[in-house]
């Protein structure tokens, strides 16, 4: 008969303290969801006898239960994208009878402090009633670590953090870049493209750039040229920087297609091109990614990639619901599909 593995031996295998392993096995607080998941998975593998699950009882969701929604301060006022995603989150919570609390988090916290993660993130809330945390958009890794330390289920929305073991729901950004690149190269026969982006803005911009590169590799010819203009979109002043760079190009060097990392970049640049005498789409075609409402109203109407924003929010709430119901299951990294919307600009 095989011997039951000791808590100390499990702690040694996982690189954890005996105390942390004991708390995780007993279902007590004091360890993160990611740590608890690692301990339980090893315990199952080694045949460690876990306590029998408690009989089903009333739902832990009470009248005061809420989901904490954290949104980066720089994204809070974006009505065309983030406010629509937020509307999907709120709708998803309402369908389940959950309340929600929204906080606009700073991107850093004091390094030396005696405050708990809960006190740093939202000291005014009753954390005992918090069902979980949804983080909208990009946050630095140390801030996300702080959120994990609250012990609440955590889901990242429109952000990828490979160092964290938590659920993520994202747009298929690489597919989006690939689709728009395919459209311009194979459909519109463009041969000199520029991708306008800012990798410091978010992971999604970098992934869209990768998708465009893949389309160039698949559908481009030996004569195809893809330039990538890294612009200070997040910091501001990017439009002037791009116009100045464009002004240094000889007429024969000018691109015949421009891809904005999002629709806002594409629409602003399209208008600037027209102001400096470059007609769209006759001399240069312009496309974006996101399909914000203004894309169908621009002049000319913007060709873009549709990424469901309200749907992204609702799917994130579904993912949090699953995590609450099944805390020990493997993490999920979900991608929502992308659809080409061809219009007048390309």
From TrEMBL:
Pfam families documented for this protein: LacI (PF00356), Peripla_BP_3 (PF13377)
GO molecular function, a single term: transcription cis-regulatory region binding
SMART domains in alphabetical order: HTH_LACI (SM00354)
Domain (HTH lacI-type): residue spans on this chain: 5-48
Superkingdom in the source lineage: Bacteria
Keywords: DNA-binding, Repressor, Transcription, Transcription regulation
PANTHER family assigned: HTH-TYPE TRANSCRIPTIONAL REPRESSOR PURR-RELATED, LACI-RELATED TRANSCRIPTIONAL REPRESSOR
Protein name as it appears in the record: LacI family DNA-binding transcriptional regulator
Species in which this protein is naturally found: Paenibacillus aurantius
């Amino acid at each position: 008969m095989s011997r039951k593995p000791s808590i100390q031996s499990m702690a040694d295998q996982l690189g954890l303290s005996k105390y942390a392993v004991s708390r995780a096995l007993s279902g007590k607080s004091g360890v993160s969801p990611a740590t608890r998941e690692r301990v339980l998975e090893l315990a199952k593998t080694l045949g460690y006898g876990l306590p029998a699950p408690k009989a089903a009882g009333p739902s832990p969701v009470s009248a005061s239960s809420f989901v904490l929604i954290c949104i980066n301060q720089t994204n809070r006022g974006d009505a065309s994208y983030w406010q629509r995603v937020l509307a999907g989150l709120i709708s998803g919570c309402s369908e389940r009878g959950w309340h929600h609390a929204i906080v606009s988090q700073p991107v850093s916290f004091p390094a030396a402090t005696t405050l708990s993660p809960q006190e740093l993130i939202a000291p005014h809330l009753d954390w005992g009633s918090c069902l979980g945390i949804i983080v909208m958009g990009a946050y630095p890794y140390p801030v996300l670590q702080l959120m994990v330390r609250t012990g609440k289920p955590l889901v990242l929305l429109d952000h990828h953090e490979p160092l964290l073991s938590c659920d993520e729901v994202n747009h298929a950004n690489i597919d989006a870049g690939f689709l728009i690149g395919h459209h311009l190269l194979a459909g519109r026969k463009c041969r000199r493209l520029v991708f306008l982006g800012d990798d410091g803005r978010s992971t999604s911009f970098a992934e869209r750039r990768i998708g465009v590169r893949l389309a160039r590799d698949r559908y481009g010819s030996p004569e195809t040229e893809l330039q990538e203009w890294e612009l200070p979109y997040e910091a501001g002043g990017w439009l002037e920087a791009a116009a100045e760079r464009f002004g240094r190009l000889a007429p024969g060097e000018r691109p015949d297609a421009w891809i904005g990392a999002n629709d806002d970049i594409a629409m602003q640049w399209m208008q600037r091109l027209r102001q400096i005498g470059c007609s769209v789409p006759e001399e240069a075609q312009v496309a974006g990614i996101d399909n914000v409402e203004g894309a169908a109203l621009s002049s000319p109407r913007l060709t873009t990639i549709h990424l469901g924003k309200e749907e992204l929010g609702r799917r994130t709430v579904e993912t949090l619901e699953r995590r609450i119901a099944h805390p020990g299951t493997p993490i999920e990294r979900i991608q929502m599909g992308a659809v080409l919307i061809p219009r007048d600009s390309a």
